[in-house]
Amino acid sequence: MASGYRVARPPRDRKLKAEAETIAAEGWKWISVAVEFSYGHTQGLRKIEGKSVDLSPGERATIDALNTEQAKLETEYQDADELPEEVDQRLGEIESALAAFENRPMLYDPAEIARAGVFISIDSEGRLCVYRGYVRPEDEVPATDPDIAQAADPSSNEGKEPSTSVQRTVIAVAGSAPDAEEEDDDAARPLPDRLITELTAHRTLALRDALAENPAIAFQRCCTTSC
After folding, report:
1. 51, 145, 200, 218, 226 from 213: Cα distances, Å
2. What average pLDDT does the structure give for the chain?
3. pTM of the full predicted structure?
């Protein structure tokens, strides 16, 4: 019997769910969240094509400055047997910053976003992994879809207001099996005395009602008790 207590989600699960809710604002049809997905979970899904966002002039200037600083430090300490701690730390920060610029956000066709989904998980080092743009076979647009014909004929849209309906993203979070220790605790936990008393009272009232509606059974019960 379930204990009735609500088990709090681990911080890791809350982080994944929070990220999913943030990404849902982009308009995806579904988001699947799990700490780890099974091998081949994207098999049979179509990956939509996106276009990476171009670097801004400010970002390009930052990258140039980081590359210059990195080259200067590496040249200055190229003959050192061991890098000073602060230099080693700074080089690590530069590498992380440059790697972040390489992982550019992608732009997708809004029509594709409306039928595609996202997978969110974490890698072996605990870093968040987001994989956007997967379309399930059942969400593909049929070749005879009337919207396609309408798009091919611009005159069919004349005099019509554009659709303003907002699609609600379906977020599915993979549940984790409870620990064996928690299951044993729930199974071995006795019912509270107050609950037992209430259940007994309800059972007694139900028995009285049944006997009142069936006098013959009540008479037979009395005779049996007397004997």
Report:
1. 76, 64, 20, 9, 21
2. 76
3. 0.53
Tokens of 98: 């440059």
Q: For residue 8, what are its two tokens?
A: 């709090």
Residues in Cβ contact with 128 at an 8 Å cutoff, skipping those fewer than 6 apart: 15, 16, 19, 120, 122
What is the domain partition of the chain in residue ranges? 11-49+109-157+166-178, 54-103, 190-226
What digits encode the pLDDT tens for the residues 71-122?
999 999 988 888 899 999 999 999 999 988 887 888 999 999 999 999 999 8
Measured torsion, CA atoms of residues 84, 85, 89, 92, in degrees rounded to the nearest 10: 60
The string of pLDDT tens digits covering residues 118-156 is: 999 988 877 888 999 999 999 998 766 555 545 545 444
Q: Which residues make Cβ contacts (< 8 Å) with residue 177, sequence separation at least 6? A: none
3-state SS string for the chain = CCCCCCCCCCHHHHHHHHHHHHHHCCCCCEEEECCCCCCCCCCCCEECCCEECCCCHHHHHHHHHHHHHHHHHHHHCCCCCCCCHHHHHHHHHHHHHHHHHHCCCEECCHHHHCCCEEEEEECCCCCEEEEEEEECHHHCCCCCCHHHHHHHCHHHHCCCCCCCCCCCCEEEECCCCCCHHHHHHHHHCCCCHHHHHHHHHHHHHHHHHHHHHCHHHHHHHHHHHHC
